[in-house]
Amino acid sequence: MTRLAVAPAPGTRNSTLHDRAARVLHRNWTGTSTVPSRGLYPHQWSWDSAFIAIGLRHVSPLRAQLELETLLRAQWADGRVPHIVFNPSVPLDAYFPSPDFWRSATAGRAAGAPRTVQTSGIVQPPVHALAAWLVHCADPGLSRARSFLARIHPLLASWHRYLLHRRDAGGGGLASVVHPWEQGMDNSPCWDTPLARVEPAAPDTFRRADLAHGTADDRPTDLDYGRYVRLATDYRDRRYADGPAVFRAFAVEDPAFNALLIASEHALARIAAELGAGGGARHSRAERLTDALVERLWDPEREIFLCRDLGTDTLVPERGVAGLVPLILPALPRHIADALIRTARGPHFGLGGAARLVPSYDLEGHAFDPQRYWRGPAWFNTNWLLERGLRLHGERSGADLLRSALLTTADASGFAEYVHPYTGEACGARDFGWTAALALDLLHSTPNEPYGITSGDAPGEVPVREGTGHGGVRASGGRGGGDRR
Q: 437, 52 in Cβ contact below 8 A?
C-alpha cells in the first residue's frame, strides 16, 4: 500500500497504530471498495465508504478516490445514492435484506436503478461531497491528473438535488428520511414514536443474518426489525417512488442527516470553485439550510436539535447524538453552538466527564442501553464528527481530549464497530472499516488544520453572520490554499 509522507516515524506508538489501522483497511479492501467488516457487512455501504475514503486518503489517495467512484457508479438516474451496493460474489444468505429482497433492477426501473449492479433502494447520510473534497486535498496533483473532481462533481450535484427536491416531505427545505436505515442510526430511541405506527412484517417472512454475528442483546429487537422490513417492503412495492404515500408511512427530518447535507453543500461549493465555477450560490444555500435546521429542529429548552416526526409534525422529545452533530456547521449561530457544547458536556452525554466517548443516546434517557445498537453505545463516526465540530467552534482543549480518547479506544477495542460509552468495551464487529479509517484521519490531523467545510473564501475561517452573534471563530488555522490534510 502506498503511504503518504505524513506517516509517523517508525517505532513510535503512532506508527504502530497507523500500521494496525491500515491493515484493517487492507484486509477489508475488495479491489474496488472497502467492506465495513468481512463477516457482518460483506458489501459496500454508502456512508461507510465516505468515512472510509476520508481515512484511506492517508494511506492511498488513489484507493480513496476509487472508493467513492465505485459507490457513485451505482447511483440511480433520479440522483439517489443507494445505501448498499451488493457484491455479486457474496452468497445471498450472507446478509439480509439481500439483493433478491430489494429487486432494484426491476422495482427501481422507473427511478433509474442501474441494470449492471444490484443495490438497495434507500439512501444513507450524504457525507460524500465532504469526503470527495478531503480526498482531493490529500493529493491535488493526482486528483487533477485523473480529473477526479470533474467526473464526480455532476454526480454529487445530482445526489444533492434528489435530497433537496424529492425528499422535502415537510416543505420546510430539509431532507426527510423514509426509513430508519437511511439515517444510519437505525435503532435509536428517537425513532420509537414514528415507528410505533408501523405494522411489523410477520417474523416468518424474513431471516435475520445479523444475529449470526452478534448477540441478540446487542442488536435491534425482532419487533423493531419487523417494522424495518415492513417499511422497506412497502417502499419497494411502490417502485421506490417518493411521494405522499411513502411519506405518510414514515417520514422524519433528522438533524444529523441534514447537518451532513449542509456540510457537503459547503464542500461541493469548494469543489465547484476548484473546477473554475463559482461556489457562492452553494455556500448561500448551505447557510439557508442551516437557518431551516435551526427553525425546524432546534429545541432551546433542551439545548439540542431534535427529530421532527412529519406524521404528527412535532419534535420527538428524545436526546440522541444526532442532535449534537450540527456542531460541524460553520455558520451555526454562536449561542446555539455554545448550547450544544454545554449539552455535550452535561449529564446527558458526559463529554469529558462520566463517559469515555459520547454515547449515541441520552445517558439519563428512559431507553438508554449501553450495549444495544444505537441505543446508548458510543460510535466512532459520530465522535469524529463531534471532535471536528468542537475544533471548528474554538473548543480545542475539548477536541484534543476527545481525539485522544478516540485513538486510545479504537486501538484498545480492536477497531470495534461501537463500544460501551463508560468502559470502552468492544461491541459489534471488530476490525471495522470506518473505525480504522477515522483513527487514521485523527492520527494524521494536526491541531491547526481546517475542517474543510467552511463557507468563507479564506481557508479555515467561519464567517460572521448578521444577527447570529457568531464571533467569526477560526476553524483551527490552515495550511493555505484550502488543501486540508
A: yes
| Phi/psi at 201 (5° precision) | -70, 150
Tell me if residue 298 falls in helix, strand or coil. strand
Taking the CA atoms of 396, 398, 399 and 404 in sequence, report the sign of the dihedral they define. Answer: positive
Taking alpha carbons only, the member of 141, 127, 155, 156 closest to residue 61 is 141
Parallel, antiparallel, or unpaired for β 378-379 and 304-305? unpaired
pLDDT confidence of residue 450: 47
- Shortest CA distance to 320 belongs to which of 187, 416, 432? 187
Please tell me the distance from the alpha carbon of residue 441 to that of residue 454, in angstroms, as a whole number: 18
pTM of the model: 0.91
pLDDT beneath 70, residues of the chain = 1-13, 208-214, 216-218, 446-485
- Assess contact for 336 and 291: CB atoms under 8 A: no
Catalytic site positions: 186, 417
In the sheet that holds 252-253, the strands lie side by side as 252-253, 308-309, 314-315
Tell me how far apart the alpha carbons of residues 102 and 236 are, in angstroms, rounded to a whole number. 7
Rounded to the nearest 10°, the torsion over CA 184, 190, 194, 196 is: 100
Look at residue 15 in the predicted model and tell me its pLDDT.
Answer: 78
Helices (H) and strands (E) in the chain, counts: 18, 10
**142 Cα distance to chain centroid:** 26
Cell triple for 45: 455501504
Query: Tell me, what's the pLDDT at 202?
Result: 87
Instruction: Give the pLDDT confidence score for residue 278 in this predicted structure.
Output: 86
Contact 453, 130 (CB under 8 A): yes
Can you tell me whether residue 426 is helix, strand or coil? strand
